[in-house]
Amino acid sequence: MFTGFMTNTWVAGTLVAIVAGVVGFFVVIRRAAFAAHVLPLGAFPGAAAASLLGVNELVGLVTFSVLGALGISHLARRERRDVATALWLAVSLALGTLFLSMTRQYPQQVYSLLFGEILGVSEGAMISVAALSITAVVTIGILFRPLLLDSISPELCQAAGGSSRRMELAFLGVVALSTAIVLPVVGALMVFSLMVGPASCARALTDEPRSAVLLSVGLALATVWSAIALSYLSNWPVGFFVGALGALSYAGGRIYRRFAPAPSSPRAAAAI
Amino acid sequence: MTGMHMLLGLIFSPGFFANAPVRTALLVGGGTAVASAVVGIFAVMRGQSFAAHALGDVSSAGGSASYLLGVSPVLGFIGLGVLAAASMEWADVQDARERDLVTGVVLGAGLALTALFLYFDTTSGSASGAVVAILFGSMFTLPLSIALPAGIAGAIAVVTTVTLYRPLLLSSLSAELATAQGIRVRLLGFAHALALALAVSLSAMTVGAILSPALIIGPAATALRLVDRPGLAMALAALLGLSAVWGGILLAYDSYYWTPGHGWPVSFFIVSLVFLGYVGVNVAPRSRAVRTAGHATGHHAGCAQD
Questions:
Q1: CB of A185 closer than 8 Å to CB of A45
Q2: Which residues of chain B are within 8 Å of residue A31 when distances are taken between CB atoms?
């Protein structure tokens, strides 16, 4: 399980979990689960288009997920955010269906793109995946304070000279980048499970933003590592384990919240 | 007269109306479009795009399980769709701030099941096409026997929404006002969620699970841009949805003749038509009526978003 071709899987899985854990924290406090679900699904046609044109899959994924971030924030100017997101989803998936029917991919390949493939990252792609992961995590690190402020109170952020619109775009951009990293391993449909599950549990366990991010990364690592191991042992799809463990972490956080004392300080309570 | 015939012959490729799968698709797809559009108006007004999408995905778990168990897909899709709607509505009542998260988690759990069932479907070898059929739709392979149960489900969704039109409208605009009027808002929420689940499961079955929100949200959002009154918007949305579905079926059928031997997916045409309609309405020169409608939706957005 830890030798040869599986080494790549463990390294890629670890990178994927770190990125998903960090970005997931902001997905949860910004209540952006829908966008975090739609961007990966919107990137999925990118993979299909890449195989149609014979270019690197990662290029297709990055292009389409960044297009998605721009598309959603453009549509959201004149429409409610959730409607804009749903419309973007519809368009990109329609394209995905078309590309798929043209490439005549085997059902097995379509399935891997949607529900994950533990051998999804090749040795050649590893360097680009690592570079993208570092970019995503560093961007979040730089934007940490303004993004946190904007997530808790857009008015305060504007008063401090920030722009909520620009923050939203930057945030969607980071989600788009992370999507391209996470998608090949856990699948388009399960990316957001990995972002939302561990992060929501971490948020329930602690009120302090920095420890919540660290905890979220830890839980995401535990989720990905167990999903890879279980998938390897049982031969069942890795997406199933990611989704199930994600839901379990959320339930765990919920149960803890029910029996735990109320948040201590008002500032912390506002962050929830 | 011959000119007319030639024109019709160009639009409707030979055998369009004589083809049994096409007739079934027109029937079931049309009914789905109407039910989705009617329910969709309230889904848009109540900010339930994510919920609508999640229900579609979760109902696909039922669809993929039905292949495995050998029961009717209608039963699978609708059973899980209704179950998911009930659990989301219940969690929403518990804590409304968590709505986005709960929807996401229900969606994630549902998709995990879909992943597992589809894996069993494909490895057992009984239905290797199940992945594409369930997720992206397979209108032309719908059996005619599906028409009756699908029709009943659609009718329940439409009748529920139309009967509850006034209280639903009031509670969608202001839950406080509705409560003050003695309306049981929670019960109403459950009834609407049930109607939504039925409509979404139907569209998941026809255009595919991950494309189903297009039929719910697209025509409704377009209609709400055009007219002010929700009742009128409902009728307009039904018309728009119906044209998109029928137009999509027609184009998909014709596409067999554009690229010989290889048709384009019907879901692609339907969703593209829906989106083109939406873009068209937004780009077209804005008349006074459109401005007021846009203003009204903008106002709702301000109230409902946090």
A1: no
A2: 100-101, 306
